Amino acid sequence: MPLTLCCGPARHGYSVKVSPFIPNRLACAASQYYGIAGCGTLLVLEDNPTGVSLVQSWEWSDGLFDVSWSESNEHVLVAGGGDGSLQLWDSTNHSPLRVAKEHTQEVYAVDWSQTRGENLIVSASWDQTAKVWDPGLQCLSTFRGHEGVIYSSIWSPHIPGCFATASGDGTLRVWDVKSGLCRLAVPAHKTEILSCDWCKYDQNLLATGSVDCSVRVWDLRNVREPVSQLQGHSYAIRRLKFSPFHKTVLASCSYDFTVRFWDFSLPQPLLETVEHHSEFVCGLDFNLHILNQVQRVFIKALSDEQIIKMPNPA
């Protein structure tokens, strides 16, 4: 059975991330009134055998749309807000460690780098820019080239100083931090792209999720056609994630209230459709720590006022 926790009155979840250090800890970014007005809440939660408990929560003056854990400190997180700010939080403190406001519109995506030898944050905004920051939220560089809102940014888990962005202009772009250049622009969809993610096992594979209801998997060595196109959602795909345990397995969540599991190596790639939510599903994440990982992978999915834990099909 799924495990459900309400985030509070008039709070709508936008992002959920499992801690890379603590197996049962997760962070959630939420906003009032679908982020249109009101404030935001950042929650740190623990999933215990007896239920989900609140570790820490903070209120912010504007909506919060994404959150990412530090890869070097188990207590530190970064969140992106509707006021154009990034906030650095420590779960042992009651106020932010630092606030930086250099974006001019909503920050819709934040990600902390995962490769060894670097410790960087990337943010993406409705102001059509991506920015790279050091761990103290000093802006190091700004990346321009998209012609629409940037909804998603993700570091390569393989290549240092390399990240990807997905935009309302229909393109997927791959950027190099050292040169400051866009290395590749892929016209991935004819409609807005709301999410992208990097395969954990192949540095050349990226997936995109779009308003056209499709997931497309791309091989960066040949982007004339997608490696796979996954159809099944009936409304826009809000977020997708590659499995940390299987090269060709990923999960997607949608405004159609569902989470879907896919294996694009199969003739019939749809593994399962999960319908536990009663509102838009805006965030999901795989848990990296579960034992017996092939048979028992769990994800966390977040939607309107709910956090749900569900098993992945074996």
From TrEMBL:
Q: Which SMART domains match?
A: WD40 (SM00320)
Q: Which InterPro entries match?
A: Beta-prop_EIPR1-like, PEX7, WD40/YVTN_repeat-like_dom_sf, WD40_PAC1, WD40_repeat_CS, WD40_repeat_dom_sf, WD40_rpt
For this protein, the record's Pfam families field holds: Beta-prop_EIPR1, WD40
Spell out the GO cellular component terms annotated for this protein, sorted alphabetically and separated by semicolons.
Answer: cytosol; peroxisomal matrix
WD repeats: which residues?
67-99, 100-134, 143-180, 186-228, 230-272
- Primary localisation category: cytoplasm
Q: Which Gene3D superfamilies match?
A: YVTN repeat-like/Quinoprotein amine dehydrogenase
Annotated localization: Cytoplasm, Cytosol; Peroxisome matrix
Write down the superkingdom of origin.
Eukaryota
Q: Can you supply a Gene Ontology BP term from the record?
A: protein import into peroxisome matrix
Q: PROSITE patterns from the xrefs?
A: WD_REPEATS_1, WD_REPEATS_2, WD_REPEATS_REGION
Q: EIPR1-like beta-propeller domain location, by residue?
A: 142-262
Q: Which UniProt keywords apply?
A: Cytoplasm, Peroxisome, Protein transport, Repeat, Transport, WD repeat
Any idea which GO molecular function terms this record carries? Answer: peroxisome matrix targeting signal-2 binding
Q: Which family does it belong to?
A: Belongs to the WD repeat peroxin-7 family.
Protein name per the record: Peroxin-7
